[in-house]
Amino acid sequence: MEESPISNPGNAGNSHQQKAENKPKSGERPDQGTAPAPDHYRPDPQHQRDESVIPAPDVANAKYHHPILAQPPEAPTGLKLEERAKVAAGVTAVIKSMEFSWSEGGVNRGTRGLLKMNQKDGFDCSSCAWPDPDDHRSVAEFCENGAKATASDADDKAAGPEFFAKHSLAQLSQMTDRDQNNAGRLTHPLVKRPGDNHYSPIAWPDAFQLIADNLNSLASPDEAVFYTSGKVPNEPAFLFQLFAKLLGTNNLPDCSNMCHESSGAALSPTLGLGKGSVTLNDIHEAEVILIIGQNPGTNHPRMLTALQKAKRNGAKIISVNPLPEAGLLAFKNPQDFMNPFRALGALLGDGTQITDLFLQVRVDGDMALLRGIMKHLFEAEDLNPGQVVDRPFIDKYTTGFASFEQNIRNTSWEDIEELSGISRAQLLEAANMLATKQKIVTCWAMGVTQQRQGVQTIQEIVNLQLMKGAIGKPGAGTCPVRGHSNVQGDRTMGIWEQPTKEFQDSLAKEFSFQPPYEHGYDTVEAIKAMYKGKTKVFFSLGGNLLAAGPDTEIIAEGMRKQKLTVFVGTKLNRGHLTTGETSLLLPCFTHADVDMQKSGHQMTSCENSMGVVSQNKGVLVPLEGQMMSEVAILCGIAIATFGSKINIADWVAMTENYDVIRDHISRVIPGFENFNEKLRRPGGFYLPNGPRERKFTTKNGMANFTTTELEKYTNEPDQLILMTVRSHDQFNTTIYDYNDRYRGVLGERRVLFMNEQDMADRGLKAKDLIDITSHFKGEKRTVEKFIAVPYDIPKGNVAAYFPEANPLVPVGSVAKTSNTPTSKYVVVTVVPAHKTVGAPVEVRMAAEA
């Protein structure tokens, strides 16, 4: 073993350390060490969640009450409708990738960024968390949306002090989200002081002291909220949670609370680990792959390469989604253009067919659909005893099967067909594809997790895998597909409002302090607490809670009530403009930036959707300015806040050499032993994963079947069910352009996808202006000036982009157990647009300000 740079600083980040030949071999189960400690998920037993009603905000008229817009502006940007695409990627994706890369960072800078992205000696893509191959990686190991994310990070335009001196916060809020992102990289620390309507420069030491003074003046540490984005690498994430706990609070809401919290809540008690159980090679080897509530063509495009490989190996794919998405229909792999045997077919052919069976489920109907498939499987087992249900696996590894089986058999076909919108015959076709197979992988994303019964639906997915014995062996298992690059890693690092006693005890031993054991606020509870004035400081490490969260105007009002808001970021977003009394905007490096500290070129790490931790080492020289790394910012704030109460020398050392942070992590978190050594392996290393080895670290040591309740809801005849979705030209809350090429929508984002019969019933035609009102417990929220777009979507269902539709999502409407906002189940009515009554608020221009 080579010396750690802690004992030999000359080893810090040296390239020769990347040449060790100990990578996992393709096709083999990875070496993952011992099984991890259990991470039992439980509903908060210490504090009851705040169930008090927050009055619905006046969403439609908010623009007249506040000159700084919390919602994107309503002005149309030029809608053009085309036929939706039938195939994803291809030549167009390559051209779009180059256009974005070269327009943002220039040809040289943009190309260098792309060629080093997702390489073993490069940096991790800052968009999705799809894993990289263990073995060979292509020269262009990226997708179109990864190229957009990296191009945005590599932007050579600067949004410095002059930009903010020219534009007031109100003026900046009138810009579209796309134009805010495209204004350039943040380069200098900025402050908005009480009464100001501009951000102005501030020195870093003064910014640190301002934060320290506010935190140290709090009556309770729980008056502070520390929010995190999944873009944050492991090392700063570990420091962020440590900082909050040193202060004395577990108020650590993060974006995971709004996306895959339902996955963790379902997987931990059933399988013993709140993560997926498959590797990338398992996708390649699977016989059947179910993709439920996910649009990989836009949200995880590199997944299509894995699906293509699975198809070429003979896999069958069942896609379950309310919308027919291009990426689930067919795929033209851009890599094939470099293969002389496939180039012509890739150019002129129809691409690889991805889906063998498409089940166009109703929004929120996935649980019923899964029950229908399993009901057919039990009937097939009756006719073919021992051929369909894996009884030996069930008897050896599981509990709760009898109750589960009875629950499925007792579910009526009438309820299944009504709730799912899928016929018994279609469900039989799906069941027949699964009946004789055991190498089954089920993938899902926010189309499932953000339902009212998202947790219970995922438990039904687990039930299906368990009854087939399809877990803990090659080619089989659960695959929750995470969104942002390190959202899974941040949770592993301790970003969680419900930390386990074991984790806190390890922190206490390592850093010689008494951490808090009381649970803190998750995202929804933090929004409520901020709105009710229970908190005074909001600190955001990356992300954009205003645009990511539900009930946009409730979040905005909560921000305005803070004494201090702190935003650490790389580019301007709308969330930076709706601020507290005082606000700091602190610029940091991206994944692509070279991070030079005293010991040399630093690297960080990220954990992907399949539990692989790999290095992230920037290659682009940062723009001129005063940007700092996230690690340096957090260490500077910690020293200013705690002074002699902490080991200042240690925090200085962590700033100068990130290997010091990793040595701390190696002693705190199971699976990270010898972290510095393992991170320098080409391709990184796998974290322990009990379910992958059939080691179920649940409380009873078994995999648990779940008996769920299938709930039926009744809505008024004119009501529709809305789900929010992304466009192709966005990633999470970052908007790159106004287009959604695969769905045939160009130049506009304020659209509502509607079934043509639902439009006719309301007297609407294509491109009509409409108003949308959501209904929740007698409350109403209305957004105006959307455009009706006819689309292939089940009758009674509609879809719109977020963040534009987020003001319709009530903060009180959450999934059971996980407390995740139900962005995939919002009851709405739609009417032709009308002129809003209200007096506009005067907004002063820059010259007047």
From TrEMBL:
<protein>
    <submittedName>
        <fullName>FdhF/YdeP family oxidoreductase</fullName>
    </submittedName>
</protein>
<comment type="similarity">
    <text>Belongs to the prokaryotic molybdopterin-containing oxidoreductase family.</text>
</comment>
<dbReference type="InterPro" id="IPR041953">
    <property type="entry name" value="YdeP_MopB"/>
</dbReference>
<dbReference type="Pfam" id="PF01568">
    <property type="entry name" value="Molydop_binding"/>
</dbReference>
<dbReference type="InterPro" id="IPR006657">
    <property type="entry name" value="MoPterin_dinucl-bd_dom"/>
</dbReference>
<keyword id="KW-0560">Oxidoreductase</keyword>
<feature type="domain" description="Molybdopterin oxidoreductase">
    <location>
        <begin position="185"/>
        <end position="566"/>
    </location>
</feature>
<feature type="region of interest" description="Disordered">
    <location>
        <begin position="1"/>
        <end position="51"/>
    </location>
</feature>
<dbReference type="InterPro" id="IPR050123">
    <property type="entry name" value="Prok_molybdopt-oxidoreductase"/>
</dbReference>
<dbReference type="InterPro" id="IPR009010">
    <property type="entry name" value="Asp_de-COase-like_dom_sf"/>
</dbReference>
<keyword id="KW-0408">Iron</keyword>
<feature type="compositionally biased region" description="Basic and acidic residues">
    <location>
        <begin position="39"/>
        <end position="51"/>
    </location>
</feature>
<keyword id="KW-0500">Molybdenum</keyword>
<dbReference type="InterPro" id="IPR006656">
    <property type="entry name" value="Mopterin_OxRdtase"/>
</dbReference>
<feature type="compositionally biased region" description="Basic and acidic residues">
    <location>
        <begin position="18"/>
        <end position="31"/>
    </location>
</feature>
<dbReference type="InterPro" id="IPR010046">
    <property type="entry name" value="Mopterin_OxRdtse_a_bac"/>
</dbReference>
<keyword id="KW-0411">Iron-sulfur</keyword>
<keyword id="KW-0479">Metal-binding</keyword>
<feature type="compositionally biased region" description="Polar residues">
    <location>
        <begin position="1"/>
        <end position="17"/>
    </location>
</feature>
<dbReference type="InterPro" id="IPR037951">
    <property type="entry name" value="MopB_CT_YdeP"/>
</dbReference>
<keyword id="KW-0004">4Fe-4S</keyword>
<feature type="domain" description="Molybdopterin dinucleotide-binding">
    <location>
        <begin position="720"/>
        <end position="824"/>
    </location>
</feature>
<dbReference type="Pfam" id="PF00384">
    <property type="entry name" value="Molybdopterin"/>
</dbReference>
